[in-house]
Design goal:
The chain has 572 residues and is of the alpha+beta class. It has 15 helices and 18 strands. Helix 8 packs antiparallel against helix 10 (369-378) and helix 14 (498-508) runs antiparallel to helix 15.
Length: 572
C-alpha cells in the first residue's frame, strides 16, 4: 500500500515545461509565418468556464493557460508555476488541506501587465460565483479559500484532507483569467461579456485578433510570451465548421491546412486520405468514451422552457428494466467495426482509462435482443394495440427522441441503434444538430447538449490528467444544468443519487491509491448501472498534421494544442 506521502509524489512526476520539441528550432519569434488549424466543430467562445465543449476548451488553450498541465504521458508538468507542489517539497501540507503554488517571476499578460496571484484568486472567485453558471465548477470542489500572501504565491485551502489537490488551476479546463479584464463579468454578467469572452487577455503563445463565432478565429503571436523565441508562427488561422471528412482531406490530401482535429471517420476513409501524401494521422488512447446519455428528467415539449429537463422523473427511462434492455439491444462490436476499427474498443465503463480506475467489465458487449425483449415484457412494457410500439404500464407509448451532433460516424450509429431499438419495440425519432451549436454554451439556445431537450443524446468527452476524481464529480446531484446555473453544469443526464454523492465525498478524502481506485471503480459502475448513461465505445483520439508541421505531440490527457508554442515549420 502507498502512503499519502508516496501518493503525492507519484502523481506529481515533473517534466520540464520548456519542451524539447522546439529546442533545436530556436530563433526569432514568428519566423515561420502562418499555421492553419481546422476544427470541424467550430468554437463559439474562448473560455472553458462558459462552455464544456472540447472545441471551445482547446481553442481557448492557445491564449489562456493553467498553473500546470499534463504531458503526453499523463505526468503533471509546471506551466505558469515554478514546480508541482508535493508533500515532499513542502508545497502540500502534511494534513493534505492546503496546496501552495509559486508563479514564475516576470510573467506578463499579453497586454504587458504583470501576472499576479490576485489573478489566480480571481479565477476561483469567478468560477464559484453562485450566479455565474461556471462549466468547470467541479475543478474547484472542496476549495474554501484561495489566499495570496504575496504577488507570486497562491495558497489553496480545502475543506478537509484532499489527497489529489490538482483540480483547481490545472489542465486546459481550468486556466487563469485576468482579473482586470473580467472584473465586471462576474456572476450573472459572465455570459453577457462578449468582448472579454471572445478576446481574452492571456499568457499563452497567441492573442486573438478577430473572433467570429462558429466560423473562424485569427490570432497572432503574443509579443509578451515568456520565451522570446516562441511561438515560431506569427499568425494562426483557426477555421471551424464543415465535417470531419473535409478536415481530413484538407490536411492529408490537399495540404490546405496544417492540423485537423478529431477525425471521427471510418478507418478505411483515414487510410484513403493518408494515401494523398500531404499529411499523417496521429492517434492515442486516453479516457475518451462515446456514450448515450439518459435523461433522468422530463424533456416533454409541453412543459415550459424552465421546466423541461428539470422536472423529475423521466416517464420511463428511470426504470432499470428499460435502460438495461436498451443497452442489451446494442451490438457494440459492430459499432466499433463500422465507426472506428483499430481506433475503437468496446467498453462498458464511464471511465475506461487509466486502467486502474476502469472496472473492465465487458458484460454489456453481449448483444442479446431476445433477452432485452423479455426483460421489457416482464416489467410490463407491452405492445397492447399491435402498432409495433410498446406502452409503459400506465399506457404511454415508448417514444424516444435521440439526438447527437452532425457527424457521419454518429449518424451511422444513430441509424443502427434506431433499427435495434425499433426491433425492441420503441419508436425512435432521430435528430442531429450542428456540432458548433450542440457543444456550444449559449444559455439561450434550445439545442445544446447541456440543455438536453431530448430523451437520450450521444457524444463523447474526456478529462484532463489521469485522476478521475473531478470527472466522476460530474455525476453529483448539484452539478445538473438548470435555469439557475445558466444551463451550465457537468451532470448532463441529471443523474442523482445520495449514495453516489456520499461515495464521491469519501473519494475526495482518501489518500491510499489502491483504495482510491476501488472507490473510483464503484462510482464508475454505479453511474452506469443506475441509469446515467449507456457506454458504447472507448475511442482513441485521432487527428492529423501536415508533413511540414513539426513539434506536434498528441496529448490525450490535456488539450491537443497544449504545446502549440513548440510547433514549427520543417522542410519536406
Amino acid at each position: 500500500m502507498k502512503t499519502k506521502h508516496a501518493l503525492m509524489g507519484a502523481v506529481a512526476t515533473v517534466a520540464l515545461a520548456t519542451s524539447a520539441f522546439g529546442a533545436a528550432h530556436e530563433g526569432e519569434r514568428g519566423r515561420d509565418g502562418e499555421v492553419r488549424i481546422l476544427y470541424w466543430q467550430a468554437p463559439s467562445i474562448m473560455t472553458p468556464y462558459l462552455s464544456g465543449g472540447t472545441k471551445d476548451i482547446e481553442a481557448a488553450s492557445l491564449v489562456i493557460e493553467p498553473l500546470a498541465r499534463y504531458d503526453t504521458e499523463g505526468n503533471l508538468t509546471p506551466w505558469l508555476a515554478t514546480e508541482i507542489p508535493t508533500v515532499a517539497n513542502g508545497g502540500v501540507s502534511e494534513d493534505l488541506t492546503q496546496i501552495t503554488w509559486k508563479l514564475q517571476e516576470g510573467l506578463l499578460w499579453s497586454d504587458g501587465t504583470p501576472v499576479t496571484s490576485e489573478d489566480v484568486k480571481f479565477t476561483w472567485e469567478y468560477c464559484t460565483n453562485p450566479d455565474g453558471g461556471c462549466a468547470q465548477l467541479t475543478k474547484f470542489g472542496g476549495v474554501t479559500a484561495v489566499d495570496t500572501p504575496d504577488e507570486l504565491t497562491v495558497v489553496v485551502t480545502f475543506d478537509g484532507p484532499t489527497p489529489f489537490p490538482y483540480g483547481p488551476f490545472v489542465g486546459g479546463q481550468s486556466p487563469i483569467i485576468q482579473k482586470a479584464q473580467f472584473a465586471d463579468c462576474v456572476g450573472a454578467q459572465a455570459s453577457s461579456c462578449t468582448e472579454e469572452n471572445f478576446n481574452p487577455i492571456g499568457t499563452g503563445p497567441f492573442v486573438v485578433t478577430d473572433f467570429r463565432p462558429n466560423d473562424v478565429i485569427t490570432l497572432e503571436a503574443n509579443p509578451n510570451y515568456r520565451d522570446p523565441s516562441k511561438p515560431a508562427f506569427q499568425t494562426v488561422t483557426f477555421k471551424g465548421g464543415g465535417d470531419a471528412a473535409a478536415a481530413g482531406r484538407a490536411v492529408m490530401e490537399t495540404g490546405e491546412y496544417d492540423y485537423a482535429w478529431n477525425l471521427q471517420l471510418a478507418p478505411d476513409v483515414i487510410a484513403q486520405m493518408q494515401s494523398g501524401g500531404m499529411g499523417v494521422p496521429v492517434a492515442g488512447f486516453g479516457p475518451l468514451m462515446e456514450r448515450i446519455m439518459l435523461n433522468n428528467t422530463n424533456p416533454d415539449p409541453s412543459l415550459g422552457p424552465d421546466e423541461r429537463s428539470v422536472i423529475r422523473p423521466h416517464p420511463f427511462l428511470g426504470d432499470p428494466a428499460v435502460y438495461k434492455a436498451l443497452s442489451m439491444a446494442i451490438d457494440r462490436e459492430l459499432l466499433v467495426e463500422v465507426g472506428y476499427g483499430e481506433a475503437g474498443r468496446v467498453t462498458c465503463d464511464w471511465v475506461p482509462a487509466p486502467a486502474v480506475y476502469a472496472t473492465g467489465d465487458l458484460s454489456c458487449a453481449n448483444f442479446d435482443m431476445e433477452a432485452a425483449k423479455a426483460m421489457l415484457e416482464e416489467a410490463g412494457y407491452v405492445d397492447s394495440d399491435g402498432d409495433g410500439v410498446r406502452e409503459t404500464p400506465d399506457g404511454m407509448p415508448m417514444s424516444i427522441l435521440y439526438q447527437t451532433s452532425t457527424n457521419a460516424v454518429r449518424q451511422d450509429f444513430q441509424a443502427l441503434i434506431k433499427q435495434w431499438w425499433n426491433e425492441l419495440g420503441l419508436e425512435v425519432e432521430l435528430r442531429n444538430i450542428d456540432s458548433s451549436v450542440f457543444f456550444g454554451g449559449d444559455p439561450g439556445s434550445p439545442d445544446t447538449f447541456q440543455k438536453f431537450y431530448a430523451d437520450v443524446e450521444m457524444y463523447a468527452n474526456t478529462f484532463d490528467g489521469t485522476d478521475p476524481q473531478a470527472y466522476l464529480g460530474n455525476g453529483l446531484c448539484d452539478k445538473a444544468p438548470r435555469p439557475a446555473t445558466q444551463w451550465q453544469g457537468e451532470n448532463i443526464s441529471r443523474f442523482c443519487s445520495e449514495e453516489f454523492d456520499a461515495l464521491h465525498a469519501e473519494l475526495t478524502k482518501t489518500a491510499d491509491i489502491d483504495e482510491r481506485a476501488r472507490i473510483a471503480k464503484e462510482l464508475n459502475a454505479m453511474a452506469v448501472n443506475e441509469g446515467s448513461m449507456i457506454p458504447l465505445v472507448h475511442r482513441g483520439r485521432l487527428s492529423a498534421h501536415s508533413n511540414s508541421l513539426g513539434g506536434v505531440a498528441l496529448n490525450v490527457w490535456d488539450s491537443e494544442l497544449w504545446n502549440v508554442a513548440d510547433w514549427h515549420r520543417i522542410a519536406e
